[in-house]
Write the structure tokens for this entry.
Amino acid sequence: MLNALDTIPLIDLMAVSHMNYDQTSGLSILDQRGRPLRDLRISLTDRCNFRCVYCMPREVFSRDHAYLPSGALLSFEEIERLARLFVSQGVEKIRLTGGEPLIRKNIESLIERLASIRTLSGNPLDLTLTTNGSLLARKAKGLRDAGLSRVTVSLDALDDLLFQRMNDVGYPLASVLDGIEQAQAVGLTPLKINMVVKRGTNEQEVLPMARYFRSSGIILRFIEYMDVGTSNGWNMGEVMPSEQIISQINHEFPLRPLEPTVEGETAQRWAYADGSGEVGFIASVTGAFCGSCTRARLSADGKLYLCLFASAGHDLRALIHGGMSDQVISGEIASIWRGRSNRYSELRRSEVRPHTGRASGRIEMSYVGG
Ligand code: SAM
Ligand code: SF4
Ligand code: SF4
């Protein structure tokens, strides 16, 4: 896969002087559309122990797939260094992802490093992680002790057979539910559950999931199935619009809309009218939120992507390996962000070409993280 990716040539490094380095004055760097850099998603690996049908279909992600060699991954020291530089440019929230982040050995020591970082306003980072939950029961306490604030667990069904079919490795539901319970017990909260709804596959699980997580203190979020990458064979007919899910749930459990709490929030938040908690809807296809997208993504091999649907990244690892100073790398991050104009989901709506999910060169979700 990597061979198919182009890397955007970096600007002449010698030309980057501290003249265009943004001193951390507390002012945000803004992209071409006025969006500040606030969130960083760091992928720790492009590998996973699941083969979710919508993300890493096993026909494509076989044993022979060109995964990143371990020598190409950023070390924990390099991740911490880059994280600090991103924070110096305004990042306040870091989400670890993948692939499956919990399969990265000794992840706890990385979390310890990241938990010591303070934002420009002197606060701890909002440090979180998205996981398929398979290793969570075993790791929850260690993650919490290392300084992780909270977790998001992906779970697409409560029907064990369907769940096993969707993860396509026969992984049992009970182990993930156990992981969720352990995470909640050790205080990795507010815990969120992400459910990708794929029409024709798991839409019948919407109400059982809502019933199960209501009143649990856990926030369930429904995500529209997206045309990320080139391998999942996406088509619009398999997208279940958030609006339909809201109306389904509202029919059984009346809902009322909530105000967004943070800038750049992806989920529309709703509360159960009887006070039994909240649910979220991420309308990534039918309700593009590019206008408030404050997210940058760092791949496991150190490339900076400005959009989930980008086809090329900026090689920050090459800068580190080229011996560049913090000042130079930080200046480069700022200049890349300032040049950003991505708004794929907004454009998707107006595109004439029918979508088949086969756009060429696009990065995969498992490479750059959700
Ligand atoms: N392996 C971890 C997990 O599954 O939580 C982290 C990485 S996964 C790529 C991050 C999130 O992306 C998951 O919540 C997953 O359900 C979501 N995802 C993957 N492919 C998707 C797609 N085609 N459309 C919508 N969400 C997707
Ligand atoms: Fe793995 Fe997460 Fe993708 Fe599923 S969604 S295949 S668990 S990376
Ligand atoms: Fe952000 Fe790109 Fe998604 Fe738009 S399509 S919300 S710019 S990641």
About this structure: The chain has one domain: 7-368.
